[in-house]
Amino acid sequence: MKIDGTHYRTIWRGEGEASVVVIDQTQLPFRFATRTLNRWQDAEEAIRTMVVRGAPCIGATAAHGMCLALAEDASDEMLETAAKGLKAARPTAINLMWAVDEMLAAVRNRPRGERLEAAWARAAEICDADVEICRRIGAHGLKLIEQAAARKKAGERVNILTHCNAGWLACVDWGTALAPIYMAHDKGLDVHVWVDETRPRNQGAALTAFELGGHGVPHTIVADNAGGHLMQAGLVDLCIVGTDRTAANGDVANKIGTYLKALAAHDNDVPFYVALPYTTIDWTLPKGVGAIPIEDRSGEEVTHLTGRTADGRIETVQVSAPGSAAGNPAFDVTPARLVTALVTERGVCPASAEGLLDLYPERRG
Predict the structure, then answer these.
(1) Per-residue pLDDT tens for 261-280?
(2) Which residues form the active site (predicted)?
(3) Which of 18, 102, 204, 315 is deepest in the core (most CB within 10 A)?
(4) Which residues are catalytic?
């Protein structure tokens, strides 16, 4: 995707054998900045502090973190240390664990002198594959938006509600939930996006709105609690969100608040779609509710907000009653029964074990 006319991915190799550059998402939407990672610990910190976020982007960063580790020391000991450290950075997104395991498989049985080159090659493959996967997700999801448009009267736009950020900033490029929207807009469909602010970190208001605005897609930021009202009023034609981990039965873990949107959609007969790459499916979990680990983050993300003042300064202020405790579960799990369909790089399927296995028959047995 483009920023001010220049194409960017969220992550790319820097100069030399030990350098990776990422877009610093904590600076958006007020400032576009990049950060250079030189050690695997830098990659771990970038993931943990949400300099990078979004399951596919986290996985790509972890893969490059393994490259940085090998550039420092190509020993088995370093492999295990870096793998353990990177996997512990954030617990919910399964892409993180998948990417580290892919890197281990690519280098573990190679002579030490060959490991670094093999690691860079595999990390590049992971990134290129993610771009193509997201493009395919977009193409399959586009058909759902076209179907919604066909049901509208002449001159009526298609209203889509999304939660958190599942655009190109959450991936390497294109995005998952936003890819179909970009394709619909580029094809000339009249689409409008309701952007949930997505408290407490405001990834919708800050990142999704930043992306959509940059691409010229009409959108409106709304408070998280407005979604149910909009659906009751007939102002939402479909919902589409991403996921950080999908269980084998179709349960999906996504940013906190997704479950409530799915409940409201179900009550108002609004289709609720979840877009995901195969790397987000955790085939080891028969179900997601009560089984997917939910990350607990600092309560300060709830009690404080960062924004830009009238004179252009970036400030963090407290918005809560002093002395009050704050809980901050970062994700919730939406049961498969509330999901209309899953949109993957292989097509659209029911949110069920059979639906997923029909798309991924190699997983049977």
Answers:
(1) 999 999 999 999 999 999 99
(2) 244
(3) 204
(4) 244
